[in-house]
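JOB MANIFEST
job_type = single_chain_structure
chain_count = 1
residues = 89
[input]
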Amino acid sequence: MSKYEWNYNIEEAPKGELVKYGSGKFATMKHHPVKIIACSKDGKTVTKTRWIPEDDDIAIGRWEFFGSKEIPIAWLPYPEHPWGADDET
C-alpha cells in the first residue's frame, strides 16, 4: 500500500522557490525546483517532473516533459530514498 494518494489539484503541486546565491553585487537568484510524480491526460504516462518557471528564454512556465500548454491531471510527492539520500536535480 502506498503512503501517497494522487492529488488531482495541480495548483497544489509544489513548484520550488527562488534561492539567493552569493552576496553583494554578485548575488543572483536561482529557481530551486521540487520534483513530483505527475500523470498526463493520455491515461498512460507517469513521469518525474519539476516546474520550469518563465524567464528570458521561456515565455510561459510549464512542467518538464509536458508541452507548454499541457497540464498534468494528477500528481504525487516525489518519494524519498528509505535511507534519506536524495539527488539535487
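[summary]
Residues 10-77 form one domain.
The chain is about 0% helix and 30% strand.
exit_status = 0
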